[in-house]
Amino acid sequence: MKIAMIGTGYVGLVSGVCFSDFGHDVICVDKDPAKIEKLEQGIVPIYEPGLDDLMAKNVAAGRLSFTGDLKKAVDGADAVFIAVGTPTRRGDGHADLTYVMAAAEEIAAELTGYAVIVTKSTVPVGTNRQVKQVVSKANPKAEFDVASNPEFLREGAAIDDFMRPDRVVVGTQNERAEQVMKDIYRPLSLREFSIMSTDLESAEMIKYAANAFLATKITFINEIAALCERTGADVKMVSKGMGLDNRIGSKFLHAGPGYGGSCFPKDTQALARMGQDHSVPMQLTETVIKVNDEVKRRMIDKVVDICGGSVNGKTIAVLGVTFKPNTDDMRDSPSLTIVPSLVGNGAKVRVVDPQGKREGEALLPGVSWMDDAYKAAQNADALVILTEWNEFRALDLTRMAKRMATPVLADLRNIYSPKDAKRAGFTAYVSIGREGFG
Ligand code: NAD
Questions:
Q1: What is each CA distance from 42 to 11, 25, 161, in whole angstroms?
Q2: Closest C-alpha residue for ligand 1 atom 30
Q3: How confident is the model at residue 194 (pLDDT cuts 50, 70, 90)?
Q4: Which residue, 32, 118, 327, 367, could crosslink 349 as a Cys pair with Cβ 3.0–4.6 Å?
């Protein structure tokens, strides 16, 4: 099959590379010339484990190429995937569909024969019908169908998620389009896998409902964590005890500094907005958004408290600023709320993150970037763990504490325990949903 992938971001690039690995001929398009230039040189513009090797393999096999010329990619394609961004629209929380609709118009102009136009971007219910209208208006002779194929991959584990998904959801309006989608995903069925076929609207809704549910689960345990802190319960034990119940499950039950990233914040907002537009307020989701903001702000209080009530003039070493490990994505990361507040209150912040610097430099002005946790801790007044990268999971805490001016630790990912911190010589320790000391 011949596939055009419009957008080479976290989703488009991973999807394009994986489809080519299935054996399809894939041309990836991006309107950002800098990205295309890098890709043509074999450089992956984002950090995603394993992507460089898989990309190189498929480029070498002649199945995968990159271009800035959408016409070249769309010409003769069986399916054209739209994988462009759908960020929050300024001012109203709605998903901004500017990029999706612009891509649809561009595709319309270049269609040469029957193709399925597939929306992989996360879009509000009704968008695929809108895409259909836009394409028909721009090119009344175009022979095409639309399909909704939301993506569920997680950054940091994207290839595995794409190759071994829990499900593939495909919403179509007729059998012809459904068949094209089945042919594209057929290599996955070799792994006893089946596509869930739906109508357009249900496919669109599944994505938002799934993300809002996961965001709710995280926020639920974060709220329970706050109550644990006041009552003497330990949220790690509580979430383990809850998660052992199969009806609940253990995933997305880890208390932390609040959810962030490129999906949950914008998708919960877009769902809330969709509810308002249809006069069916998404009250749970609206509350989740509010509580998550409070959770992030509570993290600032924790750091200020452990610094003795003020961070002014204090040197604080922050470990991890990406929204989760194994990605360079900084979009809506909790660090973007917490770090600027510390800087604004007079702290000298040193940041260590294995991949966060490229994006983070512009987003976190006034911090100094360091490449080693031990160096960052030298003479520091506090240590704050914000992202649980592997290299921060097995720190020599005694070595860290010894070199600090004031050995206090805010462990906002519950990697360590009060016992670990005390044994290592820290004089104060605070985490999430557990009693600390100091
Ligand atoms: P991204 O911002 O990383 O990438 C989007 C890319 O599209 C950019 O490189 C941009 O230059 C390009 N682009 C925009 N308009 C274009 C056009 N007309 N022609 C060619 N290229 C164009 O975005 P992303 O994180 O990959 O997300 C894409 C979509 O997938 C979003 O709707 C998002 O909600 C959804 N999604 C993301 C994830 C994730 O983990 N990032 C997971 C599931 C779903």
A1: 18, 17, 23
A2: 121
A3: confident
A4: 367
Cα–ligand 1 centroid distance for 389 (angstroms): 24
pLDDT, average across residues 395-422: 98
Check the annotation: does 207 bind a ligand. Answer: yes
Is 263 one of the annotated active-site residues of the chain?
yes
For residue 262, give the ligand 1 atom closest to its CA.
Answer: 41
CA-to-CA distance for 127 and 48, rounded, in angstroms?
29
Is 332 close to ligand 1, i.e. is its CB under 6 Å away?
no
Total number of domains in the chain: 2
Task: Yes or no: say if 68 and 106 are a contact pair by the CB < 8 Å rule.
Answer: no
> SS3 for 219?
helix
Query: What domain range includes position 65?
Result: 2-198
Name the residue with tokens 């006041």.
230
Write the CA distances from 294 to 90, 200, 289, 301, 341, integer angstroms: 21, 35, 9, 11, 14
Which residue has better confidence, 192 or 302? 302
244 and 101 both lie in a single domain: no
- What residues contact residue 128 under an 8 Å CB cut-off, 6+ apart? 119, 146, 147, 148, 171, 200, 203, 204
User: Residues 18, 28, 228, 263: which is the catalytic one?
Assistant: 263
Q: What pLDDT, in 10s, does the model give residues 227-241?
A: 999 999 999 999 999
CATH number of 141's domain: 3.40.50.720
Q: Is 359 annotated as a binding residue?
A: no
CB atoms within 10 A of CB 379: 10
Q: Decide: 106 in ligand 1 pocket, CB within 6 A.
A: yes
